[in-house]
Design goal:
alpha/beta, 5-stranded parallel β-sheet
Length: 455
């Protein structure tokens, strides 16, 4: 790499690591813990690429992007942030940041993105200006897992296009929230957002009424596979109507859209019209590392609404991580609301979580009817979804180790649960040496307690 990189981060360790890595790669580096200093450097014409944190001691890095764009059109800015929410990703995209990475970031991945930014700077500087938009205080779409970060990036890419969007995912994953977020942050945000159900489209005049309400904004068809095939034909004709003042179309689907089409639940011609961009929302059990973040979010929300301040004991939180959450984020939110009201002390104990979750169903081992899905087929399905979430980009390097950890950690945790935390029995069950098991428990940071299975 050849160029000057400006690094702004209040973490001295991050500044040091980035300075060393970029210097070894052939770059000149100026690093600071102050946005004021960063902006002075930019004003002086220094730097070919900027790497900036969001939350700095003297300001917000995202709020500086319009000023940077005005002072130095085309200067690529890579935003890094520990605020791992869809809000941060969308704000970065709206402010036309060159790229966005959540913390903790993968250093080789950041280096590759920096190299691309330097090359883009040399090829085609841009002078695009940024418009300020109103933003809601928060969106309940949060997560730092790779699946959620890929989802945020995909949302940001499709936000200001006119492509139809098909949002697939299980009930309670937040499909409608994602649709609303795409609308609220798009160029159509000042126009109506209309949710059209099967009842709205039952009679022949239904589509015309929906279009009249939308006024060129956005129309969301809720659970498209639940709408009668005859009514779906009206939607096709609606989407093929005159292009003047035509709204943007989006749809949600609880089942796999392609399979729904093959089963005849969704018309083929409608499927192809709606799938201009397909967003697959991961189930909560596919991103268990986000559960502590979501729990904190819902506890803080309950406190803002007047409930007493609560927190979960470590073993209570661990129980939530091992539960299957068939109702996904919505079920988690309802469970937290109940725990906040019923907890006997400020710290919510494992026994109280067990009581709440014990009255709720877990996932059935087989998805759908027929024979249970083979483990290899299930793994292949989730891996394909993970790759699809990254769109045209490859996942960050180190995929082999991450996937092994994703499989190995729950395997050991479930085996420990099944053996009551007895490591000798667990090692025997897994067919590995006890010292090997101990090393894996340490390496994977698995908390070992005497536990019993949730019935």
């Amino acid at each position: 790499m050849d160029g000057t990189v400006l690094v702004a981060d209040d973490d001295r360790t991050i500044r040091t690591v980035l300075t060393q890595a970029l210097t070894r790669a052939g770059c000149k580096v100026h690093a600071t813990s102050s946005l004021t200093t960063l902006m002075r450097w930019i004003g002086e014409g220094k730097g070919d690429v900027v790497i900036s944190d969001v939350m700095m001691p003297d300001g917000n890095g995202l709020e500086m992007l319009p000023k940077i764009s005005q002072d130095r059109p085309g200067l690529p800015v890579i935003v890094i942030s520990a605020q791992n929410t869809i809000m941060t990703a969308i704000q970065a995209a709206e402010a036309e940041a060159y790229d966005y990475l959540p913390k903790p970031f993968d250093l080789p991945d950041l280096m590759k993105r920096t190299a691309r930014a330097l090359e883009a700077r040399r090829r085609a500087p841009s002078s695009t200006k940024v418009e300020e938009v109103e933003r809601p205080d928060e969106l309940p779409l949060i997560g730092r897992t790779a699946a959620m970060q890929a989802l945020y990036r995909l949302v940001a890419r499709v936000m200001n296009t006119d492509l139809a969007v098909l949002i697939a995912g299980e009930s309670g994953t937040g499909k409608s929230l994602i649709a609303k977020a795409i609308h609220d942050f798009s160029d159509r945000r000042n126009l109506p957002f209309v949710v059209a159900t099967a009842a709205d489209l039952q009679d022949l005049e239904g589509p015309a009424r929906v279009l009249a309400r939308a006024k060129g904004g956005t129309v969301l068809f809720d659970e498209i596979s639940d709408i009668d095939i005859e009514v779906q034909a009206r939607i096709v004709r609606m989407m093929d109507g005159p292009t003047d003042n035509l709204p943007r179309f989006m749809a949600t689907c609880q089942t796999d859209p392609n399979q729904a089409m093959e089963r005849g639940e969704v018309r083929q011609d409608l499927y192809y019209r709606l799938s201009g961009a397909t967003i697959q929302v991961p189930a909560l059990r596919e991103r268990v590392d986000d559960i502590p973040l979501l729990v904190d979010h819902f506890l803080q929300r309950a406190e803002r609404e007047g409930a007493p301040k609560r927190w979960l004991a470590e073993d209570a939180l661990e129980m939530m991580r091992t539960y299957s959450w068939p109702g996904n984020v919505r079920q988690l939110e309802n469970a937290i609301r109940r725990l906040v009201l019923t907890a006997r002390t400020d710290e919510i104990a494992r026994a109280e979580v067990e009581m709440v979750l014990g009255n709720q169903p877990e996932m059935e081992p087989a998805m759908g009817g027929g024979d249970a899905e083979k483990l290899s087929a299930s793994v292949a399905r989730h891996l394909r979804r993970y790759f699809d979430l990254h769109g045209n980009m490859l996942p960050p390097p180190g995929l082999y180790g991450r996937i092994l950890k994703e499989v190995e950690m729950p395997l050991i945790e479930i085996a420990l649960d099944a053996t009551g935390g007895n490591q000798a029995k667990c090692a025997d069950l897994l067919g590995i040496n006890r010292n090997t098991l101990r090393k894996k428990i340490t390496d994977l940071d698995i908390r070992v307690t005497r536990r019993r299975k949730l019935m």
